[in-house]
Each structure stands twice: as C-alpha cells, then as structure tokens.
Amino acid sequence: MMEIILAREYGFCFGVRRAIGLAEETLRSGKKVASLGPIIHNPLEVSRLESIGLRVIDDINELKEGESILIRSHGVPLEVIQELKDRDIDIIDATCPLVARAQRMVDFLSSEGYKVIIAGEQGHPEVKGLVSYGKGNTFVVSSLEEVPDLSKEKVGIVGQTTFSIERFREIVGEVVSRSWEVRIFNTLCNASRKRQKAVEELVDKTDVIIVIGGKNSANTRRLVDIVESKGATVYHIESWDEVLAEWFVGKEKIGITAGASTPDWVIDKVLEKIKRLCFQ
After folding, report:
1. Are 7 and 21 part of one and the same domain?
2. Is the overall model pTM greater than 0.70, yes or no?
3. Residues above pLDDT 90, as percent of the chain
C-alpha cells in the first residue's frame, strides 16, 4: 500500500509568513506598493501577490509616483535604504528579523575592527545586503577553499541565514585554526536547520522524496542537496504540473517536504496531484 509521509518541518517559516502578511495588509489598505525584487523566492506566490496588486521592480528608479516600496524578506543593501530615506519614499520593511540581526552583527564586527567573513552564497540577495554593512571589510566564503589568509587579522564570522550548518561549521573550524582572534555569531536560521534535519529523517523512511519550492530558493536547494548527498531519489519541483506518475512506479513510501518560502496552497495542490496519480 502506497503511503505519503510529510516531513516533520516544512513550508513557510516565520520570516516569510511575516513578509507575505505585511504585503497583503498594505495592499488591503489601498496603498500602491512595489516590491524591490521578488518578496520571496517562490514564483507562484509572487505571481499570486502580483495578481492582487503588488508590483515587482528591479530598481528604485522604476517606482511610480505615490507608490510605497516593500523591502523583501532577504533585505537590501544599506545604501539602497539610505537612498529611499533621502528621497522620502514610504518604506514597508519586510526584511526577515533574523536577516536584520545578521546585518547588525556584520555592522558591529566591522565597527570593532574585525575583518568579517560571511559564510554564504556569493551573489545571493541576502548576502549582498550583509556585505553592505561591512564597510569594505568583508569576504564572502562558501567553501573551505575560499577561506582567505587572515592569520594576522582579527576575524568575525557571520552566516547567511539559510546556509548549510555543516559548511558553516567547516568554515568556522578552518578560520579558527588559522587566526589568532575570532568572534563567531551563529546567525543561521533555526527554521532552516529544522527543515534540513527533518529531510534527513525522511530519507530513512521513504523510497522517493519530492521537494517543493522555488528553483531560485537557496533553502529549498539545500534540502535537495541533503537528499542527494545521501544517495536517495529526489525530485525538486515548483509546481504540481511538474509531477509525473512514473516517479512513483514501484515505490511504497513517498516523502514530501517544502522550502521555507513555499506556501501551503502550493503544497496542497502537489499532494492532490500525487494522490490523483497514485490512488485512483
């Protein structure tokens, strides 16, 4: 008998739910709102918000007269916030509180004279924001090979909130072994860690795992990487339309998880599709 097993932790985290709530509340108030970049890394949810009035822009110069600007959950560089304030533009700050904390930690370390290592993905929106708080004293490191020679420096370490806990530990260990003074702030998101732990548990209980979430979502890709690293069969999908019946042939236990930016309504539609294919 085929069985669907949901991960112990999956789907929207607090920061994403807060950002979506702020966007919906502001739109209901009648304000015209533009999001500076996608509010979260989930195309389907972004499209839903666009359908009720949220406009996505890539540059603040695209703002229209009378529009408020919504800062997405990943945050934005410090200089962008300053320019918005200088131009007296109404700001709705949906930056995840944990991302905002990481920004403060980078600012603090830099102000105290530390070279700051940000353990994270170069080019990720959150990381770009973190770098801007470092006053030019930052290095973005995603692997051991990228750790610079800082043997004579005071070093501070901060992590991208959705970064791999294993890689964070490796980078911290390498920096500690090379440097004479190190301060470490563990800014990794507990919700992301719980989802990563939960998908590890799911591997041992299932024959195939479906990971639901944006292809551009770092925390969702991390779940896929974990399953792949354990040699299990995994499919990463954004939409229920991608689900294929052939994935479940000969399988008895189907594992389901979702990234922290995946809404419940998308997860429900995926479950409906799987049940339709496997239990008809």
Report:
1. no
2. yes
3. 86
126 is catalytic: yes
Q: Report strand pairing: 234-237 vs 253-258.
A: unpaired
- 39: which 2 tokens? 């509010």
Task: Say whether both 211 and 181 belong to one domain.
Answer: no
Considering its fold, how many domains does the chain have in total? 3
Asked whether the beta carbons of 23 and 39 are under 8 A apart, the reply is yes
Residues 257 and 241 in one domain: yes
* Plot region of 193 (φ>0 → left; ψ -120 to 50 → alpha; else → beta): alpha
Top pLDDT among 262 and 153 is at 262
pLDDT for position 214: 94
CA–CA separation, 142 and 160 (whole Å): 10
Residue 280 has pLDDT above 70, yes or no: no
**CATH number where 54 lies:** 3.40.50.11270
Active-site position among 126, 145, 166, 228: 126
Per the structure, the complete domain to which residue 164 belongs is given by 98-188
Kindly report the CATH number assigned to the domain that includes residue 183. 3.40.1010.20
The average pLDDT across 118-126 equals 94
In this model, does residue 84 exceed pLDDT 70? yes
* CB distance 216 to 169 below 8 Å: no
How many Å apart are CA 128 and CA 162, to the nearest integer? Answer: 14
User: For the segment 49-63, what is each residue's pLDDT rounded down to a tens digit?
Assistant: 999 999 999 999 999
